[in-house]
Amino acid sequence: MTIRDSVQSTVDDCKLIDIRKYTDSRGYLSVIEGGNDIPFEIRRIYYLYMVPEASRGSHAHKELEQLMVATSGSLHVTMDDGLRKRTFVLDKPWKGLLVAPGLWRDLDNFSGGTVCMVLASERYNAEDYIRDYQEFLKYKGL
Ligand code: TYD
């Protein structure tokens, strides 16, 4: 993966999607195929759970694309492009947030028992993180 010096994405590049679901008398089943239901191939899956009241995130990814899903419970995800913020509520297992690269994110308001699953376009790479907000603004050319 090539890590670019700057990515000119905005919060409008993030969107909520309906994850397809199949329902019958046995209950619900949802499916996400990389490259089909979402615009990237899935190279990594991780999930957040047993989160106390404090928020998580507070970093940006330079290149990583993600789909975030509250498979159980609910949380708020605030995306920030340095100029504008948008808060998305994840509260259904069939609702996913497509997160564009080059944006700051904060995750908070976790309800008790929330499990937030994240599908990611790349394997873990510490070089892809920006953890300092001032550095993030510089990265965005602001
Ligand atoms: P971190 O990115 O700090 O969590 P948050 O998204 O809340 O900021 O990750 C916490 C720890 O987990 C950190 O030591 C790195 C490790 N980690 C991995 O090894 N692989 C991964 O895919 C992720 C997401 C984290």
For the structure shown, list the relevant keywords.
binds thymidine-5'-diphosphate; globular; mainly beta; 5% helix; 142 residues; five-stranded antiparallel beta sheet; Jelly Rolls
Q: Remind me, CATH topology?
A: Jelly Rolls
The major beta sheet can be summarized as: 5 strands, antiparallel
Structural class by secondary-structure content? mainly beta
- Give helix % range: under 10%
Question: Roughly how many Å is the radius of gyration?
Answer: 15 Å
Share of residues in strands: 35-45%
**CATH architect. name:** Sandwich
Q: What is the number of domains?
A: 1
The unreliable regions are none
- What ligands are attached or bound here? thymidine-5'-diphosphate
- What is the average per-residue confidence, as pLDDT, rounded to a whole number? 97
- Strand order within the widest beta sheet: 1-9-6-11-4
- CATH homolog superfamily: Jelly Rolls
